[in-house]
Task: inverse folding
DNA sequence: AATGAATGAGCATTCATTCAT
DNA sequence: TATGAATGAATGCTCATTCAT
């Protein structure tokens, strides 16, 4: 096999890692699965990312950035005439819609096929892997910072927490997301 | 070596599994680690729990029960003169205090040395392991049911969601738990 | 492939490990090479010896025992009329004769195809692997104890040291062992 | 990054290799570990030393030279009024003192921070690596030549052998170095 | 002259699970 | 009923070496 010069390879490995996490979860992420998904030799993944932690951080940080951009681009965060709770409830719906593959619903545009599950994979992994904690923290903070443009920072933090909790329960109980309920409770938090 | 009849063995295996998850996370749970922790032969763990999923469900259901009992026993849920938000914020503090261990503070009595991290491992692992979903769902429902004695069921559900979100963020960002903030936001949810 | 019940397997793995060390040195000892040599699956070697250190200790200790028996059986150690230095010089010759394969000389009877090189492999490995130190120490002590039946313990120790040094130099400089030189120098040590 | 002309680089790589062997043993010597220790790119090590054997030979020959110089500089080898056995026993003590490191005693001046362990790694590795044999042989011969200035060549060779054996046993058994014992036995060898 | 990238082979180890006893 | 033995697959990771630039 020819030794190809492939300057994009590092990026392709990251992209493959994101797809693998999306499909099989972080538990399914291994040098081998990523190499197969990216179509590169095994050694290539360990060359570019000496440890799995490194690869996970790179992949999840990139996913974070895509997510943050998509969120920030939503009109609601610029337009004060829109109802914030309403917008957030809608955001959650979109987010959850992009989630578990078995819904048959294609992921919403702009999420880069990254739904709510990826976030929770990140949370789960960060619980035991200190290397991922900063990435998890960024995830929260980026979203809170975006929300803080429409409310105070402390409330923004709580909104993120409630959104997290609602999401988690929706994912765990099978996905029946109740937008009206979410809207109502988010609204209560906003002073 | 005599093969003793050991009716406690099944229980000892479950207890060992809880300790293992608490110390090393779900990723560290294997027939081998549990057998070593319980001091029983490897074959014994596969005999009593044919698959790891079975063992995880048993272990985590038991952890749930211990938690539920401890929660239900709190006076606040029977005594309407106590401030609910205050009590819940206190509950979170206790729970998180039993957590990551580096605080040096021994876990609160009654948690069965099971802290918040263990429960979130459960929650989050359930995302990818259907076998755990019902156990995770029970967790939410039991707590919500307890809270519903002091408020309406829908609010109770949201309180659980917010508590989940606050907990998760505290665990992941390594930040201090801010009881006053939790109290304030929980109070906003209560109509 | 049928799962055979093979109660001798552990021993066969040890024997294979000794052959591997003899042929390729300790650097060539791996779970894989041993499994191939023993004709057992890879997993079998790790089942019986969880770590390579364990396997190395078992293999080298067994080699030690074979060596010690062979040495102790030599008449010289019981018969005070024989010249000790002479006997030891002869022992070294035999020992070195069993050594490096390229001599074409078949290993002396009784060494179990274990020559001087194996001893030095052991020394080399023990230098960096604490787990092997006790085995290396036993090697020295067993020989010294045998010699101590014909002289005092301190002299015995020095005889072993000189034998070691002579051996080492013979192996390193290509094997021209000079028995007369060895005899003379060993004799000088005996008071 | 500018590609500086760096005439010292080859030397820096050799120095790094010596440090690596000293710290992790020959088994820990790889192009990668050396590159990291020397602070040079991986490709640089393979450029200057096409194979690991080349690097090992260069590194260990340099270690030899440092040792030989230090030994030759000792007064004892020129001053016939000093007791040779006594001096050699002292030399061994110094050498071993620079060794395993857990003594807390800093290596004696003049050894180039190369202790006895490094040299024995060389000796013993040469058993299986023909490329190292000449270097190991030089070691013996240089020391024997220095000793031959105070005694006959054959005795000198035996003194080196005994010193080797004593050293080896001290390193392997972890026992204390007994200078009086060494002195006595070395003295017995001197006619 | 110098080096970052690449890669296939190999490593020790862990594992869930099966099965003979 | 229990369990020690067995095993194939997989894991993260290191490596010497080659090669295009």
Result:
């Amino acid at each position: 096999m020819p030794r190809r010069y492939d300057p994009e390879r590092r990026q392709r490995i990251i992209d493959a890692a994101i797809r693998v996490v999306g499909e099989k979860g972080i538990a399914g992420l291994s040098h081998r699965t990523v190499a197969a998904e990216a179509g590169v030799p095994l050694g290539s993944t360990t060359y570019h990312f000496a440890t799995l932690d490194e690869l996970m951080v790179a992949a999840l940080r990139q996913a974070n950035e895509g997510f943050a951009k998509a969120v920030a681009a939503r009109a609601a965060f610029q337009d004060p005439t829109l109802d914030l709770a309403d917008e957030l409830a809608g955001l959650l719906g979109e987010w959850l819609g992009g989630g578990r593959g078995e819904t048959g619903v294609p992921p919403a545009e702009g999420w880069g096929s990254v739904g709510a599950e990826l976030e929770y994979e990140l949370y789960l992994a960060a619980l035991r892997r200190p290397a991922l904690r900063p990435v998890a923290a960024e995830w929260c903070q980026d979203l809170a910072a975006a929300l803080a443009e429409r409310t105070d920072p402390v409330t923004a933090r709580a909104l993120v927490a409630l959104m997290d909790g609602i999401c988690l329960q929706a994912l765990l109980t099978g996905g029946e997301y109740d937008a009206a309920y979410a809207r109502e409770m988010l609204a209560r938090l906003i002073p």
Summary: The CA atoms of residues 14 and 59 of chain C lie 5 Å apart.
